[in-house]
Amino acid sequence: MKKYRETPIEITKEEFKKIGYQLIDTISDFIDAIDKKPVTTGETPGQIQNILGDALLPEFGMPVSALFSKTADLLLNHSLLNGHPKFLGYITSSPAPIGALADLLAATVNPNVGANILSPMATAIEKQTVKWLAEFIGVPPTYGGILVSGGNMANFTAFLAARTAKAPKSLKEDGLKNTPGEMVLYCPKTTHTWIEKAAVLFGHGSKSIRWIPTDAYNKMNNEILLQTIKDDIKNGKKPFLVVGTAGDVSTGVVDNLSAIAAICKTYDLWFHIDGAYGVPAAAIPELKNLFEGILDADSIAMDPHKWLYAPLEVGCTLVKNPQHLIDTYSSHPVYYNFSNNDEEPALNYYEYGFQNSRGFRALKVWMALQQVGKKGYVEMISDDIEISKLFFEKAAMHPELEAITQNLSITTLRYVPLEYAQNNEAKETYLNSLNEQLLNELQKGGEVFLSNAVVSEKYCLRGCIVNFRTSKKDIEEIIEIIIREGRKIHERLRKK
Ligand SMILES: Cc1ncc(COP(=O)(O)O)c(C=O)c1O
Predict the structure, then answer these.
(1) Were both Cys, which of 107, 151, 186, 496 would link to 276 (CB 3.0–4.6 Å)?
(2) Domain boundaries of the chain, sorted by first residue
(3) Distance from CA of residue 460 to its chain's centroid?
(4) pLDDT, tens digit, 9 for 90 and up, residues 218-264
(5) Architecture (CATH level 2) of domain 373-495
(6) Rounded distance from Cα 276 to ligand 1 centre (Å)
(7) Closest to 108 measured CA to CA, from 16, 7, 15
(8) CATH number for the segment(s) 111-359
(9) Three-state DSSP class for 142?
(10) Ligand 1 centre from 451 Cα, in Å?
(11) Which segments within 189-314 are labelled E, that is strand?
(12) Residue 110 CB: number of other CB atoms within 10 A?
C-alpha cells in the first residue's frame, strides 16, 4: 500500500536517493574542475534560446532522472560561473559550497520564516544569524534586524524605517502630504542606484536626493554635506536621512563615517550605512579605523551574498533600535494568529520587513559562519584584499597598464598602449573607447570576467575580489590576458 496519496510530484525514497547521489556526484565534480571551464561560454541570448529550445508547456510529465541530467547540462555548461577563480565582476561572490547543501536542507524542511509558530527553529536560527552578523562587524548584539534578498532590499528596509522614525506620526494615515516641509535626504554621489529607486518608489521623487560631491579621496565631502543640510533647513525642507557608504560599488571607498555620524547627531537625522559590499571588512583588526563611526549608525545594510560568500540571495538590515522596523512594517490582520498566544512574546519576522511568507535564507549564512568561524572569514577577506592590492601593484608596474584605484578588494586599471603614455585630451577619448571594447572582449572571451568603473571620466577595467578561490597566480595570468587582448584591440583600432 502506498504511504501517501498517489501523486505525480512525489519522488519515492529510493529514487530520491539515487538521483540525489548522482546530483551530488555531478556537483562535486563540477566544483572540483570549475577552474578548467570557461568563466562564461559567451553564448548570445539567441544561442542560449536555441539550446534551451522552444517547447510548449508539457502536457505530461517526464522521468525525474532524465530531467536532472538535461537540467544539469543546461546549467553547468551554459552559465556564467561566478564560482570560477577568475570571476572578478561586479560584486557577486563565489558561492560557498556549504550554502548549496544548506539550501537543499532548508528547502526540504521549508519553514515559513514569516511567523515564529510556522518556523520555530528557523526563526531562532535567523535571530542568531542576525546577532552573529552584528557581532562580526563589531556592533552590539542589541542591534536587531532581518535577512532580506540582497543589498537593494536591505537598504530599502532601512530607508523606510528612517522615514517612519523621522516623519510625523500621522505618516501612516496621511502619507507624505502632511509632513511639514519636503522630506529630503543626503548621500555621496557614488551611492549605488538603490537610493534613486527608493526615493522614486516610496513617493519622495528623485529630486529629494541631495547628491553630495566627493572629496579628493573620493569620500563624501562632509563640508558640502553640512552646508547643504543648513541650506535645506533655511529653505523650509525637512532633512531626515544621511547615507554613508562603507565600500562604494565602483571603487570600494569607505566614507568618513564618524564625521557623518556627528553631523547626523547635530541635526537629529537618521544615519544609515550602506555596507552591502564592504562592511564585513570592519571585522579586520587593522581596518578598525577605516570603519570608525559604525557604532553611531541607526541602520546598516550588509550582504552575506557579497563578501561572506553566501549563494544568492541574502542581504541583511541591521537596526540599532529594531522597534523602528516594527513601527514601520507591523500589521495585525484578523486572519493572523501569530501573537499573544504564549506567555513568551514571539518574534514574527513578517513584522520586521516587506515579506509575509519568507524562505529560510538564514541557514546558509548560519552554517557558513560556523564552518569557518570569525577567524576563517577574517582570513579570507584579508586575503581578498591582499590579492586585490597585488592586482593594483602589478598593473602599476606594467608599462602598458595604468593602475587607477585600490580600496578594500576593488582595483581599477586601464590598458594604455605605449605610444599613448603622454597626456592629451584626444588620448582620453581613445583610451575610453579602447578600454570599453577591451572589457567587452574580455567578458565574452571566457578567460576572465571583469566589470567596469568610470573614475574621473576614465573608463576603467574593474576587478572586485569577493572570491575565496582567486589566487595570486590568477592575478598574474589575468594581467597577461589584459595585455594580450589590449594589444590586439589597439592593433585592430589602428587599422580602421
Ligand atoms: C554598495 C552597494 N549597495 C547596494 C547594492 C545592491 O545590492 P543587490 O545587488 O544585492 O541588491 C550593491 C550591489 O553591488 C552595492 O555594491
Answers:
(1) 151
(2) 13-81, 111-359, 373-495
(3) 21
(4) 999 999 999 999 999 999 999 999 999 999 999 999 999 999 999 99
(5) Alpha-Beta Complex (3.90)
(6) 6
(7) 16
(8) 3.40.640.10
(9) coil
(10) 14
(11) 209-212, 238-245, 270-275, 299-302
(12) 11
